[in-house]
């Protein structure tokens, strides 16, 4: 049996300013840093220990990972960074204010773009390039649906995380709202037409307890005031 904790990074500057971020690299706010500390304190108080941590190529997730590991005195464990855990790419919406976009296209269409499974946000006219991805031979998407995000995430889950859990080694994932929604959809077997009901707030850990075959025995939504919501 093993435990998996997944956490969305603390509040970023784009979260604070209500901006679509995607693969744009933005730092944490002071509130985001404090959220990471509170997550670490809660995990430490629960006595959770991890064999490894996994995060994206985005500094908001990397910084949150480091803050959590420092709080639980586990900075020594391996931290694996992968573009496969990046936030979904919001294409031409990246950098735009969500309220302004909502005024332009309406709440229903915006909801489909943000929370639907196969709905694709408007694409960028040309592909962006960054050294961090070019060196890996990774093409930055023009935009991504949640389905596309899940497709590029699952190989990492299947090759790097699931085998560790099957061997009884607890794992920590610190990623993003959409990439974690994609993972939750897979783990919880959520139908396509119900994934729009799933939200992953900043700095709110979710604890999965698995049996020896990676069947979920218990899923716990950890809150910072000590209260929990258990779904067994």
Describe the structure concisely for a colleague.
With about 230 residues, the protein is an alpha/beta fold.
What does this structure look like?
The longest helix is centred in the C-terminal third of the chain and has 21 residues. The protein has one domain: Rossmann fold, CATH 3.40.50. It contains eight helices and seven strands; from the N terminus they run βααβαβααααβαβββ. Helix 2 runs parallel beside helix 3 and helix 4 packs across helix 5. 38% of the residues are buried. The chain has a seven-stranded mixed sheet. The protein has 232 residues and is of the alpha/beta class. It starts with a strand and ends with a strand. The chain is globular and about 50 Å long.
The fourth-level CATH homologous superfamily is: Phosphoglycerate mutase-like
Count of distinct structural domains: 1
Summarize the main sheet.
7 strands, mixed
Return Rg in Å.
Answer: 17 Å
The rounded distance between the terminal residues' Cα atoms is: 15 Å
Task: Give the number of DSSP strands.
Answer: 7
Instruction: Provide the structure class.
Output: alpha/beta
Shape: globular
- According to CATH, what is the class? Alpha Beta
Task: Report the total helices.
Answer: 8
**Element order, helices and strands?**
EHHEHEHHHHEHEEE
- Determine the CATH topology: Rossmann fold
| CATH architecture title | 3-Layer(aba) Sandwich
């Amino acid at each position: 049996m093993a435990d998996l904790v997944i956490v969305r990074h603390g509040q970023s500057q784009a979260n604070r300013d209500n901006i679509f971020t995607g693969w744009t690299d933005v730092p944490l706010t002071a509130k985001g840093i404090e959220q990471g500390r509170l997550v670490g304190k809660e995990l430490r108080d629960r006595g959770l220990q991890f064999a490894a941590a996994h995060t994206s190529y985005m500094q908001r997730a990397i910084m949150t990972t480091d803050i959590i590991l420092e709080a639980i005195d586990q900075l020594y464990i391996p931290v694996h960074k992968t573009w496969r855990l990046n936030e979904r790419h919001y294409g031409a919406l990246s950098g735009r204010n969500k309220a302004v976009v909502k005024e332009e296209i309406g709440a229903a269409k915006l909801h489909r773009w943000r929370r639907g499974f196969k709905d694709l946000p408007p694409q960028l006219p040309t592909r962006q390039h960054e050294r961090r991805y070019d060196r890996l031979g990774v093409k930055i998407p023009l935009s991504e649906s949640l389905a596309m995000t899940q497709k590029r995430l699952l190989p990492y889950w299947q090759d790097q995380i699931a085998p560790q859990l099957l061997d009884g080694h607890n794992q920590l994932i610190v990623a993003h709202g959409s990439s974690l929604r994609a993972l939750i959809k897979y783990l919880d077997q959520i139908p396509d037409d119900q994934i729009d009901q799933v939200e992953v707030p900043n700095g709110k850990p979710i604890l999965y307890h698995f049996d020896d075959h990676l069947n979920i025995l218990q899923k716990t939504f950890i809150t910072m005031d000590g209260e929990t919501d258990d779904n067994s």
